[in-house]
Design a protein that fits this description.
about 375 residues, alpha+beta, Rossmann fold, Tumour Suppressor Smad4, 2 domains, 6-stranded antiparallel sheet, 20 strands, ATP-NAD_kinase_PpnK-typ_C, EC 2.7.1.23, NADP, NAD/diacylglycerol_kinase_sf
């Protein structure tokens, strides 16, 4: 059976086109047919010339149903575009980072040959990433229905004024405030826009939904992490007349008039990402953000499971001299203790209620 790999590249960048040509040559040399879009192949051959590699055109020679894997050469934006393309197909994405941080990418540019070799030898695993299902309602009617892999971001439409919103979790209102926007994200998107807005980093293996306010003018406007089965909602209030706009992964947008409502739930359809490396998310976090880890010694290897340590029980201290209560509840003779006289003596000249200014006589 013929194996086919779709190559998606940012053909507006020379580095991306060179990487795409290199990947196509390596795949062809290993009896795998590289596939590209017609316009991207035209950009590639027009800039670099004819490579002599036999290639097929997507939607002309083959369809996405014939593709084994999509190799994405670019940054996270290119990978999000690829996720949009294969949304209705069971095709995994394998990203090679040519951008800046590239959290969605599996490998870097200098590892391209090793990545292609892993594809040739089928040395890759596939993991599913949670997506968001997004519904926009106006006056109770659905006006838009879309999805997102990273996040859906509600932003203010007027630069000169904040947008007034009220947030909701599981059908109950939480709080209202003025803000620049609200980000609702997946664990995959926790290192993207939600991270920039001050949200927490959530490991991809954690199933949860995030809600992160953007520059909220409120005392209680903290990032929220809720159950993946919860329903998040944000309503655009009408009290200041400001309108908003939502962006799904920075690619799909819907304008929101005052009174609009956004409902976000877990999508039943995940995105599949191919992995050629077995590194942990912690290692990827350190590598992508260049976090300082100098001085880390790591856990001590144990030959066997250590027994539970018997720690001493701390008891409350006892008074050195026992406290005794005298008979009769007062002094030793049974009399009540005399209280000191706490009366404050009046001043020598009492205030008469009339103030004399500059020696005036009001008698």
């Amino acid at each position: 059976m013929t194996r086919r790999v779709l190559i998606l590249a940012h053909t507006g960048r020379e580095e991306s086109m060179l990487a795409a040509l290199e990947a196509c040559v390596e795949l062809h040399a290993n009896a795998i047919v590289p596939v590209m879009y017609a316009d991207e192949l035209a950009d590639l051959t027009g800039y670099l010339g004819v490579s002599g590699v036999k290639m097929e055109i997507l939607d002309r020679d083959v369809t996405l149903a014939d593709i084994e894997l999509v190799m994405v050469l670019g940054g996270d934006g290119t990978i999000l575009r690829a996720a949009e393309i294969v949304r209705d197909y069971d095709v995994p994405l394998l990203g090679v980072n040519l951008g800046h941080v590239g959290f969605l990418a599996e490998s870097e540019r200098e590892e391209l040959i090793q990545t292609v070799a892993a594809v040739v030898q089928r040395r890759y695993s596939v993991e599913e990433r949670m997506c968001l299902d997004v519904i926009v309602r106006v006056a109770g009617k659905v006006v838009a229905h879309t999805w997102a892999l990273n996040e859906v971001a509600l932003e203010k439409g007027n630069r000169e004024r904040m947008i007034e919103v009220v947030t909701e979790v599981d059908g109950r209102p939480l709080t209202s405030f003025g803000c620049d926007g609200v980000v609702m994200a997946t664990p995959t998107g926790s290192t993207a826009y939600a991270f920039s807005a001050g949200g927490p980093v959530v490991w991809p293996g954690v199933e949860a939904l995030l809600m992160v306010p953007i520059s909220a003018h409120a005392l209680f406007a903290k990032p929220l992490v809720v159950s993946p089965s919860s329903t998040l909602a944000v309503e655009v209030l009408t009290r200041n007349g400001a309108y908003g706009v939502i962006w799904c992964d920075g690619r799909r947008t819907v304008d929101l008039l005052p009174g609009a409502r956004i409902e976000v739930t877990r999508s039943p359809k995940p995105v599949k990402l191919a992995r050629t490396q077995q590194s942990t998310f912690s290692e990827r976090l350190v590598r992508k953000f260049e976090l300082p880890v100098q001085g880390w010694r790591g856990p001590t290897p144990e030959q066997a499971e250590p027994p539970t340590t018997q720690l001493p029980i701390i008891k409350p201290p006892k008074p050195k001299t026992p406290l005794t209560k005298p008979a009769g509840g007062g002094t030793p003779g049974g009399r009540l203790a005399e209280l000191p006289d706490l009366t404050v003596a009046p001043p020598a000249t009492a205030y008469s209620g009339t103030t004399n200014f500059y020696g005036e006589d009001h008698s």
